Amino acid sequence: MSVLVYTESEQGTFKKAALEVASYAKAVANQLGTTVTAITINVDDASELGNYGVDKVLNVTNTQLQSFNANGYAEAIKQAAEKEASKVIVVSSSADSKYLAPLLAVGLNAGYASNVIETPASTSPFTVKRTAFTNKAFEISQINTEIKIIGVSNNSFGLVENSGNLSTEDFSPSISDSGIKVESVDKATDKVTIADAEIVVSAGRGLKGPENWGMVEELADVLGAATACSKPVSDLGWRPHSEHVGQTGKPVASNLYIAIGISGAIQHLAGINASKVKVVINTDAEAPFFKAADYGVVGDAFEVVPQLTEKLKTFKAQQ
Amino acid sequence: MKILVCISHVPDTTSKINFSEGDTKFDTNGVQFVINPNDEFGLTRAMWFKEKQGAHVTVINVGGAETEPTLRKALAIGADAAIRVNAMASDGFSVAKQLANVIKDDTYDLVIAGRESIDYNGGMVPGMIAGLTNANFVNNCIGLEVDGTSAKVIREIDGGKETVSTTLPLVIGGQKGLVEESDLKIPNMRGIMMARQKPLTVVEPIEAGAETTSIKFEKPAPKGAVKLVSADNLDELVSLLHNEAKVI
Q: Which family is this sequence assigned to (chain A) (predicted)?
């Protein structure tokens, strides 16, 4: 009956989102008066999970699951859920988790709520609060099925330490051959991704051209932030599509979102609204973004951004 | 190649979102409905397959009669036929079951659905169709080529992209990148006239309970006024972010 959490890893190391969903699963387990079991795939050392409320780890080591494949991963999680007789399964909002969760839902005939931002308001009936209408509203959703899958929105719950006695057990689910073969992966490993980032620095057409992105990257570097851009910027080809955030781009739910030279069209604001604190830097004091921001600087990005970077460097050095 | 494009009927991206009946229903008053943007990228890619590889393209939607103008628009853009499953689209799982039922009766080589709708953002329909019909599935698809029964698909992953090879039948969760924004087609008069002659079949739904139910909606709390910091005093901004907002 334990709450099952899928704790994602990359090259054997847990992603930050894995520790967040473990923290969330612990809170739900407390509500239900049960324990937390985590399933890990190809992780060498899962002991870190013991700090976030996990009681037991099912450790899968399987060469078929060396690279991510949604079907195989969903099969492994399904079998773990059956073994533990879990009624609640918690996953993150990473691209991979959102890819496998619908397959898992079909496999377990489970109701699935994605983009959940709080622990269940009630466990009988089982209701969760999730973002909808691309962050323009919240939906209270009731999951009617016996088995429930919760996709937790990134950075919505945070990390909560909870140490206990962690037991680890090897688990060998049977995995069928995947109909999908990974040919190549093209990924910048030295950069913070928008999905994982606590801080996102984003810029728009106000930067006038792709050659001016150096200062955005410098600011992001100082903050350990991911870089992002507005839709016109990716449409113009100044920045890759993968950086486009907004309604049709990537959603952002960072702790701090800094918007430079972005006017703040409704579609852009919808995509980034889940961010907790928003700072806008724009020459136009009438830009709609100022109405949605917490802090604003009316000024020329070409002067403000390099200065802000210097100030932050000094600040960081003092910390 | 037979392609099915799933079309969600959603409020236009600039719509103000309001609720009625004690915040339990989405208020459609004055709302302009459009083809879900993530679906439109997929539809446009399907048009490319039609032009270059002779594909036959059917569009499908689960909804009441009020969603038919959205299907007609898809026909005007160039789809050959439309199907409307006559049921209220309640939750993603039940929609996927209705769609899977149509797909089982009338097999398709390629099913394209947006990675998520911009209204409920469930992100579950494409994956669930694949699960229910035992088809291969690639989500967050930003590139797709088909050669015979083989497909090469590019998937956006956190921090980059991945190229995979697979075989038909295939379901993809599409998004921007599948085609460029500038490739999207606005229906011309000829397309609109022709769309009136194209078949739009209404099929009755199967029994499918709702796995999840919307209980209530809330709107975000109104935002306080922005705190403006002078461009000459950025130390204050650093201090506010550290001491007040506590985010650095």
A: Belongs to the ETF alpha-subunit/FixB family.
Parallel, antiparallel or unpaired: strands B19-20 and B25-26: antiparallel
A100-147 confidence digits (pLDDT tens):
999 999 999 999 999 999 999 999 999 999 999 988 999 999 999 999
- The pLDDT of residue B159: 86
Interface list for B 164-193 with A (CB within 8 A): 164-167, 173, 175-177, 180-182
Q: Which residues of B touch A122 (CB under 8 A)?
A: none
pLDDT digits (tens, 9 = 90+) for B58-94: 999 999 999 999 999 999 999 999 999 999 988 999 9
Between β-strands B2-6 and B110-114, what pairing exists: parallel, antiparallel or unpaired?
parallel
- The enclosing H or E element of A201 equals strand A199-203
Q: How many CB atoms lie within 10 A of CB A60?
A: 21
A:B CB pairs within 8 Å = 261
The residues near B135 (Cβ < 8 Å, ≥ 6 apart) are B111, B129, B169, B170, B171
Question: For residue B9, what pLDDT band results from cuts at 50, 70 and 90?
Answer: very high
Average pLDDT estimate for A288-312: 97
Domains and CATH numbers, chain A: 3-170 (3.40.50.620), 199-318 (3.40.50.1220)
- What is the homologous superfamily of the domain B2-218 according to CATH? HUPs (3.40.50.620)
For B147, counting Cβ atoms within 10 Å of its Cβ (0-12 exposed, 13-18 middle, 19+ buried), the class is exposed
How close does chain B come to A15, measured CA to CA in Å?
11
Whole-prediction pTM value? Answer: 0.94
Digit-coded pLDDT (tens) for A246-280: 988 888 999 999 999 999 999 999 899 889 999 99
3-class state of residue B97 by DSSP: helix
